[in-house]
Amino acid sequence: MFFRLYRYGLIRSSRDRMMIFWNLIFPVILGSLFHVAFGNYTDKEVLFHRVPVAYVQEEGADGNFALLLEALETENGLIQVQKTSQEKAEKLLREGEAEGIFFQKKTGAGEQSLKGLSGQENSGISLVVAEQGINQTILNSILEQYERTSATFIAIGKEHPEGIQKAAEVLEGEYSYLKEGSLGDAASNSILDYFYSLIAMNCLMGAVMGLQCAVEFKANLSALAARRMAAGASRFRMLWPDLAAKVTLQFVCIIFSVSYLMFALDVPLGDQWGFLLLTLFSGDVLGVFLGFFIGVCGKMPYQMKEALCVTIMMVSSFFSGLMVSGIQRLIERYVPVFARINPASLITKACCSLNIYDTYGRYLENMGIMLALTAALAAGSFLIVRRERYAGI
Amino acid sequence: MAKKVVEIENLVKRYKDLIALDHLNLAIEEGEVFGLLGPNGSGKTTAINCILALLHFDKGSVKVFGEEMQPDSYGSKRQIGVVLQNVAVFEELTVQENIDYFCGLYVQEKQVRKQYVEEAIEFSGLENFRKFYPKKLSGGLLRRLNIACGIAHKPKLIIMDEPTVAVDPQSRNRILEGIQKLNRDGATIIYTSHYMEEVEQICSRIAILDKGRCVASGTKEELKSMIKMGEKIHMEAEGLAPYQIAEIKELRHVYQVDYRDGMLEIRCSGGKHNLVHILEYFGSREIGFGRVYSELPTLNDVFLEITGKDLRDHAEVK
Questions:
Q1: What is the ipTM of this complex?
Q2: What pLDDT, on the 0 to 100 scale, is given for residue A45?
Q3: B72 Cα to chain A: minimum distance (Å)
Q4: Which of A82, A200, B122, B303 is 20–30 Å from B277 (CA)?
């Protein structure tokens, strides 16, 4: 029975032209419009890929910076270092093979940067870049952090050698902050936020499907539901295939639009396919259950429930940054509770964190909240519809 | 004594201050075509929704096949077919897919279901419209599809709530014949309609609901015998004197005589051979007469007599 009803569920939804337009075509159109508006930016950026950098080290220079670069390359995966000669490094920079050049002289020797964002005489390290952009900002941040750390360390060693151990612990903490926080912020891209929000909105569009499911399930909302509720099959045996069909079809729509963004428009959404799919699926399920919950709650007529569904979807997407970049951070700062439960923000942040952080802490946190929200909506819905009889039909 | 398929006892259903069902009692026996008649808002659809356990009710009990009806009384529900007032089919499925979908909620075995679907299509005369979507069907065909979806699984009890609304006479006739066939095949049928002639044609027993109460029930003959009005006789007779009209009024069973423009209208309260008695009177007095015809009371007369002739939609309009 499940597969038969599931098949009919798929057939019904796939023949619904309005649904096909809004859930499949509309996100593609919106994505294309975003691409037209921000296309150049996204084409040029190679965000979330390692930043290629050349490193020229003078003989006899301090090896600490080289160790840091190696750690950032092997452990952090943030940069891709090519240790080479000055001539070759400059050639790489000219040809666009490197985003910058770190020159390191013996301490005390100066270096004149061509267009340096930062040059420190004391450490003997300078950064040379051909243009300014977010990758160059990342390289500059690395250098600044190193300069600050080594200067602090040297000062403590000179003035309070007894505190060197404690300083090392503090600096270790600062390095962690660099990995989890500063670099994360540096790597985030406000333009990509629009695309993530678009994906989140696409996931939440499942709410309208969930609402349809409720309409076909609540006898006080449609004659069709009344006929089904009067039938000799268990309510949940009819409900599960319907919900599964809606989730499946919505997932297909999401995959289609995300594939379009990634492969047709070249939007760099990262390469963590498995986790990205998991996030999209979770968002899809959350969207469908959100709509189903709205559908089964209260006595509002269908049109009002549909309007409520669309409003929640749009408001949620707006506060995740669909229309105004950076609003998500403002909400996180001033209304953190809302930011934590806003479905679109959760999806956006989960997708985003996959590409920003090396660790999965924040990703799992967002996924956990999403899962909890979905479970709460599902449990609430099922409690309402279980053995339900109506006051009026 | 026939087995009771539906038993409703003291059923009370209120919508805030409005009493939709007021201590309703009904018993429907196996093999009947039971007609539920009543003006708008009399509680017919509410009663049906209570039978199907879709509605909460305030008091009383509803038993179907001897079992108290609950939302999860799937055993009883499997034996019920429902044809609701509004067409309830999926717009995105074809005629055949719709019937298969609803039949599949009751019948799991694929081969049996396939056969049932075919029979339902044939029964409703939709053979040439299998691949049509509902929006492409005419009103009559849509109603037939609605019925096919409700009866495809061969239920023992079929509940039909005004299934012939907005249907052309041909389709209506086909639907009524189909209902009679279903009954002959063993199904018990509860049928609500505004069309008195339909109810009179197909129902073996009828209950008249008014203001949530069952105000009369019985066979057509029993209902007709409940009202004062019996036979109505019309005669063409010129120049009748007032004393002759008074004598006619004194005849047995005659309760009202009107004489206007040479046309005599005699109303009898019941009994048999009224016309014979009147003709005997005319013969004995050697009074000449022209055309004569008589009308027996219809269910419509019974309905109007019992529920009154006032319009019932005042409150709703207001």
A1: 0.81
A2: 45
A3: 7
A4: B303
